[in-house]
Amino acid sequence: xxxxxxxIAQLIGGKVYGDETTIITGISGIKEAxxxxxxxxxxxxxxxxxxxxxxxxxxxxxxxxxxAKNLISTKNPxxxxxxxxxxxxxxxxxxxxxxxxxxxxxxxxxVGKNVCIGPHAVIQxxxxxxxxxxxxxxxxxxxxxxxxxxxxxxxxxxxxERVFIGNNVIVHSGSxxxxxxxxxxxxxxxxEKIPQVGTVVIEDDVEIGSNVTIDRARFxxxxxxxxxxxxxLVQIAHNVRIGQNCIIVAQTGISGSTIINDxxxxxxxxxxxxxxxxxxxAIVAAxxxxxxxxxxxxxxxxxxxxxxxxxKRVNAALQRLPGYVKTINELKKRIIILExxxxx
Length: 344
Prior knowledge:
Largest sheet: 11 strands, mixed
Distance between the termini: 92 Å
Helix content: 10-25%
CATH topology of the largest domain: UDP N-Acetylglucosamine Acyltransferase, domain 1
Radius of gyration: 27 Å
Number of helices: 5
Number of strands: 39
CATH class of the largest domain: Mainly Beta
Shape: flat
CATH superfamily of the largest domain: Hexapeptide repeat proteins
């Protein structure tokens, strides 16, 4: 990589403040960057590092100024820097090409144009795979499943029978889409399995991290809306409905028949009880345990989850409990002394 600051600004749609002819030869984080490299900053608490960094230029949010450093101002420094990173390191992907001879593909499966299927993948009967989709080695695609165009399924992912996946969906390694929902009924003290005959529907532009489990519905469908991004190690139970453009962070668990509306954020290790509704734009903080439905555009935290401001006050009071106990014990002693004095 060797380019000028002006050329980078044109690539990312930014404006240069400083020397446009500055030569950039690489990228790095703001603390590690050296002369000739470009970096970025988006969090205000790191703005003081702009002047201190050794980088030759910094990509910053609009309105941020520093006369001592070459800057490129842009609306989204993180996205802009990702474009510069792609320019610097090139395409790191080395996707499988063609259809490997060891792949097992049913005779009646419909495989679109430019589809790539890796070694030892299994494509069962009545499967349909859209154009330009890539399925890596060791993947399993079950009976009557439909996968759209330009999807990417990484090694050892399992997509069970009668699942529908839209276009431009990414499924990372180890994930299982369409496993049986956790449904049992008690019969004379034994747990009898309830058949899970529904399906899973995943809309366009969804990304599913590694080792995610998405259970099929008991009767209807488990649903993931367009543009939703799911981190690693997430459990989504049967009949859950997730709206568009949600963010679900690692180790989150969503119990059955819960409705997650559009643009909800579920932070890491949060847990949602079954048959609840999480309102549009709500945020569930890390490790929160949600036992009641959450209103739209609300932030909740703690266990049981409550409005974040209230949860902070409760937590602050808990931190003072040792002092309260000490005070109460001292008051008890004083009461005993007062009672003795009164009796005497």
